[in-house]
């Protein structure tokens, strides 16, 4: 099959759970012998023409959080207009806003749309951007030949809102990791099992400020490592660093990928995920795949991922988070057992081979309907 992916930033993925999920799906499809093209934003494509069997088509875009995705998607749609493709696979609700244009330009080419999360809930967006993202969700769910939703909670909501349209639960996948011993991360002043890890973007709805405030009130003899960078949220990043000032246990290590990120996961004591709202969190799935215990906010998507096997705290409740951090620190054997149970869950629920099989079946079904 000839498959084009539209909506991701570039390859290899540097930040964001959606980016990593889409990258893995494309690579798995290419490994099975399919022709896979990734429309990437210039500057995110690292001047690569091919990455692990995936052909990269780098196109320009208008810089700025409000125009970056939509300007690039528009050029991608124009580019694919003249191409022979079996399936076009859109990612996320912003890019999905232009599915209507593809339906006009290429009415015989089926479209699959993956609905990852309600991006309009993110606090970085202004009122118009939030409206436009809701419009993109509406277009994607109504016009795509098949909508794939990455969490069961969001699938139920979408099926209720868009009754009669083809909407199906297809989760993210996760690869079994190769663990690394402590090496490069020593530059950050950390060692095996002596730190709690947050890995993700530094944007307000991720709730990192709750973790910092709760952790500062404890006397836990471990570090709190915050791995990630802002996404047009420099003010929030500055706010977090001011909150952490004066506590040398809190370490900002910036955006990490590759072997350093693998080391951070391989040697953490605990992973904390405090999001106020979230799609299916790739940070949690990655932590689970390493056999790490997870302390997560009790939002539905986090509870779905951990399935009662992890530690939870009441969303936005710093007092409860403080108590759960102390409990996790004082019960290493118990949380280690929880980590092993979470690892087994990733093999059962989030296996890439099964998810790729399901994705290919969807492609075949939408092609057959044309």
Automatic annotation (TrEMBL):
Q: Indicate the segments annotated as coiled coil, or none if absent.
A: none
Tell whether Lipid metabolism is among the UniProt keywords.
no
UniProt keywords (A-Z) are:
Transferase
List, in alphabetical order, the Gene Ontology terms for molecular function in this entry: glycosyltransferase activity
Tell me where in this chain the Glycosyl transferase family domain is found: 190-334
Q: GO biological process annotations for this chain's record?
A: lipopolysaccharide biosynthetic process
* Domain Glycosyltransferase subfamily 4-like N-terminal: from-to ranges: 16-176
Q: Which InterPro entries has this protein been placed in? A: Glyco_trans_1 (IPR001296), Glyco_trans_4-like_N (IPR028098)
Q: What is this protein called?
A: Glycosyl transferase family 1
Q: What does the record give as the organism's lineage?
A: Bacteria, Candidatus Falkowiibacteriota
């Amino acid at each position: 099959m000839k498959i084009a992916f539209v909506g991701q930033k570039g390859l290899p993925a540097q930040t964001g759970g959606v980016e990593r999920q889409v990258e893995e799906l494309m690579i798995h499809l290419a490994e099975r012998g399919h022709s896979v093209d990734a429309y990437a934003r210039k500057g995110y494509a690292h001047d690569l023409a091919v990455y692990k069997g995936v052909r990269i088509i780098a196109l320009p875009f208008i810089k700025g959080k409000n125009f970056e995705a939509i300007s690039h998607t528009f050029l991608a749609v124009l580019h694919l207009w003249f191409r022979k493709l079996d399936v076009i696979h859109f990612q996320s609700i912003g890019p999905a806003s232009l599915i209507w244009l593809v339906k006009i330009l290429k009415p015989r080419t089926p479209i699959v749309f993956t609905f990852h999360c309600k991006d309009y809930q993110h606090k970085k967006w202004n009122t118009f951007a939030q409206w436009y993202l809701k419009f993109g969700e509406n277009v994607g769910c109504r016009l795509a030949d098949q909508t794939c939703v990455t969490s069961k909670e969001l699938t139920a909501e979408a099926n209720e809102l868009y009754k009669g349209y083809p909407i199906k639960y297809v989760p993210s996948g996760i690869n079994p990791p190769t663990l690394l011993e402590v090496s490069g991360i020593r530059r950050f002043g950390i060692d095996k099992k002596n730190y709690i890890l947050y890995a993700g973007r530094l944007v307000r709805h991720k709730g990192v400020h709750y973790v910092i405030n709760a952790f500062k009130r404890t006397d836990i003899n471990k570090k709190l490592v915050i791995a990630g960078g802002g996404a047009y949220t420099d003010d929030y990043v500055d706010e977090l660093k001011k909150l952490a000032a004066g506590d040398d246990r809190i370490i900002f290590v910036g955006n990490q990928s590759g072997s350093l990120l693998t080391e951070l996961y391989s040697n953490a004591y605990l992973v904390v995920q405090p999001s106020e709202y979230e799609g299916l969190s790739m940070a949690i799935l990655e932590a689970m795949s390493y056999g790490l215990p997870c302390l997560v906010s009790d939002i539905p998507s986090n509870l779905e991922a951990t399935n009662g096997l992890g530690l939870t705290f009441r969303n936005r409740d710093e007092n409860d988070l403080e108590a759960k951090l102390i409990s996790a620190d004082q019960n290493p054997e118990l949380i280690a057992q929880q980590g092993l149970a979470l690892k087994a869950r990733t093999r059962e629920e989030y296996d890439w081979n099964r998810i790729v099989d399901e994705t290919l079946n969807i492609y075949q079904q939408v092609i057959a309907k044309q």
